[in-house]
Design goal:
The longest helix has about 70 residues, at about 35-105. The protein has helices at about 5-15, 20-30, 35-105, 130-140, 150-160, 190-215, 220, 225-250, 255-265, 270-280. By secondary structure, it is mainly α. The model is unreliable at about 115-125 (pLDDT under 50). The termini are far apart. It has ten helices and no strands.
């Protein structure tokens, strides 16, 4: 029998319980500095990785929110632009309808259909916003209509400030709806009002003629036909001045013939108006 093994066995039996556990616990109290440093570095790296992950997640959420907000803004801008364009078209259609009814009531020829926006030529310099705002306010006009661009505002200002023939006569012009002539009155008061009607009608005709000429593109104005049309208007405007003087004095010998021409024109009987003009100018052949 091995004596050393028996002795070791007996010594183990003689040891109190828990001695080995306390020994191992005492050994656990003492950790190497290298192990402690490894644990600290591992905890630091884990903390940095968690912070990086959280930062990336926050950045991703922020980027997603900005993209969604940009998309919402784009949709809103497109909707606003579409509504503005629809409003502009409705306004232009209403203006065209009213203008057509007005020209029909006054016996003026219909305007040619619009092909493109040529009211403002490339050579026309659009003033800055502040200057244009001041000019429109000076005319007691709204600074900007709904959906109106700067070019459209400038066109509106040009129409408002267009040169007209209203300075040709000192007579008080009648409203356009009241300038339709029917017959030559016998009483002096009725004749005086008739002269105002005639002056108003020819003023409107000259003004519409001038506006139509100014609305042409620059290349058309500079062409041979364009210059000829401008010269014809200027000559006609100059030739109308003596007639306006006659209206002011109330001394027109050919009043019946002029009323016949104007009445036929207002009723859109242009052939009859031309025949009446020929009878007035050269008589019956």
């Amino acid at each position: 029998m091995n004596f050393a093994a028996l002795l070791s066995k007996e010594i183990e039996k003689a040891k109190p319980a828990g001695t080995s556990d306390s020994t191992s616990a005492q050994n656990d109290k003492y950790i190497k500095r290298s192990e402690l440093e490894k644990q600290r570095q591992a905890a630091y790296l884990a903390e940095q990785q968690a912070a990086k992950t959280a930062k990336e997640e926050a950045s991703r959420k922020k980027r997603k929110f900005e993209e969604e907000e940009a998309e919402r803004n784009r949709v809103r801008e497109e909707k606003r632009a579409r509504l503005a364009e629809e409003s502009r078209k409705r306004r232009e259609e209403e203006e065209a309808r009213l203008e057509k009814a007005r020209r029909k009531r006054l016996g003026l020829p219909e305007l040619p259909p619009k092909k493109e926006d040529t009211s403002t030529s490339e050579n026309d310099e659009i003033p800055d916003d502040a200057d244009l705002d001041a000019k429109l306010r000076k005319l007691n006009q709204p600074v900007r209509l709904f959906g109106e661009s700067n070019k459209q505002r400038f066109r509106r200002y040009q129409r408002l400030t267009a040169k007209s023939a209203s300075g040709f006569t000192s007579l008080e012009l009648v409203p356009e709806e009241d300038m339709k002539v029917t017959r030559v009155p016998k009483d002096p008061q009725g004749r005086k009002y008739l002269y105002r009607q005639l002056a108003t009608y020819f003023t409107v005709v000259l003004r519409e003629w001038e506006i139509a000429l100014n609305a042409r593109p620059a290349d058309v104005k500079d062409s041979f036909q364009g210059k000829a049309a401008t010269n014809a208007f200027l000559q006609s405007r100059e030739n109308m001045k003596p007639l306006f003087r006659k209206f002011e004095k109330g001394e027109l010998d050919t009043l019946d013939a002029v009323v016949e021409i104007v009445q036929a024109t207002q009723e859109r009987r242009y052939v009859d108006a031309n025949d009446a003009y020929l009878r007035l100018s050269i008589g019956k052949a």
